[in-house]
UniProtKB/TrEMBL annotation:
One GO molecular-function entry: ribonuclease P RNA binding
Protein known as: Ribonuclease P protein subunit p38
SUPFAM superfamilies (UniProt xref): L30e-like
GO CC entries: fibrillar center; nucleolar ribonuclease P complex; ribonuclease MRP complex
Coiled coil: none
Cross-referenced InterPro entries: Ribosomal_eL30-like_sf, Ribosomal_eL8/eL30/eS12/Gad45, Rpp38
Domain of life: Eukaryota
GO biological process: tRNA 5'-leader removal
Region (Disordered): 63-104
Ranges of compositional bias, category Basic and acidic residues: 74-95
Length: 281
């Protein structure tokens, strides 16, 4: 006789794990920096390197302060006596510590924005004339947002290879991923004027025709022509003219968003209400 089927014991049946679903939005456009020619790259690097050397811009760090901070972290009790003696030494020689860590010409450093965060803040406030980005920045997402920012503010920007390798040791920094020149600069006026014509134009599909000069010229010409037509035409002709202008303008075409599947959270466990008590078997 065939044996009767037995019920599976506890723990024998494995629970299937639910699939984790993550929703993500993809950009249909591929935004990238425009390629810079080799001659322009060498020109930009040489001009900036010579200018930084002539101005003497450099960041100096006090090694004594670093040692004291390191000793404080290691042993605060042992370092207390050393700190007291150092304070007495400072009181005796106040003139030696006046050349502490920092930038040597402070007024020149204020005319620049060094680093990705500082450049983004300055671009958001619309306070830059030129933006240079290092090509060796990894991952590329660190500096990719500067393309849209600089184009929306009509600021010329480009990606320069070997920017950090050549300029960082001259200034006294480890790396320079982004470099910006402020609008109130006086020390880098000639350099900015020489570099801007060599900077390639950026291309973003939803930001076209951004340069202010060309836009202002077009706006003034169109306004003058419209004023002449308004004086000569009647109210009905004006309404027709407005309709033609609206139809003639090329609007930005947005691609439809395609969502494959939307699944609610399957791991959501609903807790029982607080009033009811769970009965233990």
């Amino acid at each position: 006789m065939a044996a009767a089927p037995q019920a599976p014991g506890r723990g024998s049946v494995r629970k299937t794990r639910p699939l984790t679903v993550k929703t993500a939005l993809n950009n249909p456009y591929a935004i990238c920096w425009s390629a810079l020619e080799r001659e322009d790259m060498h020109f930009i690097l040489h001009t900036l390197e010579d200018r930084f050397k002539s101005l003497g811009l450099q960041k100096t760090e006090d090694k004594k302060k670093k040692k004291k901070q390191f000793l404080k972290k290691q042993s605060p009790d042992k370092c207390s006596t050393e700190v007291d003696t150092s304070e007495d030494h400072k009181e005796k020689q106040p003139g030696d510590n006046e050349q502490g860590s920092g930038w040597t010409p402070v007024h020149i450093r204020k005319q620049l924005t060094i680093g990705v965060n500082e450049v983004t803040r300055a671009l958001e406030r619309n306070g830059l004339l030129l933006v240079l980005v290092c090509k060796s920045a990894k991952p590329a997402l660190i500096t990719s947002h500067l393309i849209q920012l600089s184009l929306s503010r009509s600021v010329p920007a480009c990606q320069v290879p070997r920017l950090s390798e050549t300029l960082a040791p001259v200034i006294g920094l480890k790396c320079i991923l982004a470099l910006g020149f402020r609008k109130d600069t006086t020390a880098f006026v000639d350099e900015v004027k020489a570099i801007i014509p060599r900077v390639p134009s950026l291309h973003v599909p939803w930001l076209q025709g951004r340069p202010e000069d060309s836009r202002e010229k077009l706006d003034t010409e169109s306004l003058e022509s419209q004023d002449k037509e308004i004086l000569e035409t009647s109210f009905e002709d004006l309404s027709k003219h407005k309709r033609k202008l609206v139809e003639g303008q090329q609007a930005v075409v947005l691609q439809p968003l395609k969502i494959k599947k939307v699944i609610p959270n399957p791991n959501k466990i609903r807790k029982p209400p607080k009033g009811k008590k769970t009965t233990s078997k």
